[in-house]
Each structure stands twice: as C-alpha cells, then as structure tokens.
Amino acid sequence: MVSRYLVDGLMSLFFPADCLLCGKNLEPLNRSFICLDCWKKVKWLPSVCCVRCGRPLSFVSDKNLNYPSVCLDCRENPPHFKRLFSPTVYQGVIAEAIKLFKYNGKRGIIRGFIQIIDASINRFNLTSLGLEAIVPVPLHSTKLRERGFNQAKELAKVISRYLNVPVWSDYLIRVRYTRPQTKLRRKDREENMKRAFSIRKGAKNRGKGKRILLVDDVYTTGVTLNEASYEMKKDGAEVFSFTLARALEPQ
Ligand SMILES: [Zn+2]
Ligand SMILES: [Zn+2]
C-alpha cells in the first residue's frame, strides 16, 4: 500500500502549501501557487487609456486635443496593430507571477491568469470583435527547447477556449534569434527585432481579410508586438493584440 505520507509528500512537490510570494498557507483547492490575498494586489490599468496602445491617459493633459483617446506616441507613430488590450500593470504580483511561470516552471500559476483573462474578456468586450484566429507571439526554437513551452501559446489557448476561436500556432514564426530585450534601449530594441518574424511559407495569405488577436505575456515597449503585427498586416490581416500585463513606462 502506498503510504499516505508519500502521497502527501508528492502532492506538496507539485502543489506547494505556501504562497510563493508571501509564504502564507495557500487556501484549500488553490492550485495557483499564489494566495488569494496576493492575487488581489494585482493592479489593473485604469479605464481611460489610449485606444491604440493601452497607455493610461491623463484627462487634464489630453482633454484639449482633437483625438483625446489616442496618445501622442500613437498619433506620431501609429502601431501596426489596431488596438492593444491589456488588463494589468506590469509590476508587483503580476510581474513576479509571470516570471515564476516563465522561468521557474510554475505552470500552475496559469490558474490565476485564467481568472484575469476571464475578467478581461468582459472588460474589453472581446467577443464583439468578430475575431477569427488567435496567434501567440512565437518563441525561437532554441528558446522553446530551453523553456519547454511558449507562455504566449498557453495564454492564447485560454483565450481560445473562452472565445471559441482557433489558435494558429503554425502561422507566424520566429526566424531570427534575438538578444534579450530587457537590457536594450528603445532604438536598439527596434533594430534587434527587425525581421525577427515571418509568416510560415505554407501559410502565406492565410491572414487575408482575417481579424486576428495576437497574444503575448507582457507589453513593455511594444516593439515585439509591433514587429509581429507588421508581418501579419502585410499578409492582409487586421491585427488586435492582447497581453496579460503592460509596463507603464518603457523600460
Ligand atoms: Zn501570498
Ligand atoms: Zn498610444
């Protein structure tokens, strides 16, 4: 007979009893590695945001402009995607959760992300967009081998289930291995991401006339989403994008 202790021991290996962020005991049935009190600290973006890139807009400084719902950056340099939908501010709990999910293999954290995605679908009324496909930002094959999974694809699969729209994971491909973006300045990031993506040879024209949701975990400067959107737009698609979190200032 398998010892009860062994089973408990194994369970706690997969489902630790303490919150990975604050160390408090997890609630029974909470398999997200993070306690509910910590999840409640996730900061949501305000509702008044640039309709293109999701940057919070200041009412005072923007009320006299002709297009108050589009930020200055987007007016000068419109992104290749139509809109970015992003529910949370990339800091604190959500930033830690995304890092644990991506780099520490704590896949169960997706249970917390699912709650956020669920709320976002209503908040942004994503069902009304008439989306026809969901495309995760692809990882380079080398990175995929290292990490074992593509976090953007995991998020895309969740959205796909809610919207009942298929995930196209063999449409957009990463053709170039890029250096980590975090240590680069904006200009260098743009240069670094140039032609990093392509439409897979056999999938050319698949995007023609299609409304597609491009999905990634985090929006920092928007360079990655913009470059990926550019390729899809060239293929004839109308691109919307979704990220779980958005940095407030370019980092
Ligand atoms: Zn906690
Ligand atoms: Zn903007």
Brief descriptors of the model:
251 residues; alpha/beta; five-stranded parallel beta sheet; two-stranded antiparallel sheet; 36% helix; binds zinc ion
Could you explain the architecture of this structure?
With 251 residues, the protein is α/β, with parallel strands linked by helices. It has helices at residues 4-14, 36-40, 59-62, 72-76, 92-103, 110-123, 141-147, 151-163, 186-193, 223-234; strands at residues 84-85, 88-89, 133-136, 172-174, 197-199, 211-219, 238-246. The radius of gyration is 19 Å and the shape is globular. The strands form two sheets. Strands 1, 2, 3, 6 and 7 form a five-stranded parallel beta sheet that branches. The mean pLDDT is 89. It has two domains: 1-36, no CATH class; 42-246, Rossmann fold (3-Layer(aba) Sandwich). The structure holds zinc ion (ZN) (2 copies). One zinc ion is lined by residues 50, 52-53, 55, 70-71, 73-74.
What topology does this entry show?
Elements: H1 4-14, H2 36-40, H3 59-62, H4 72-76, E1 84-85, E2 88-89, H5 92-103, H6 110-123, E3 133-136, H7 141-147, H8 151-163, E4 172-174, H9 186-193, E5 197-199, E6 211-219, H10 223-234, E7 238-246
Parallel strand pairs: 1-7, 2-7, 3-6, 6-7
Antiparallel strand pairs: 4-5
Helix pairs in contact: 6-8
This protein binds zinc ion (2 copies).
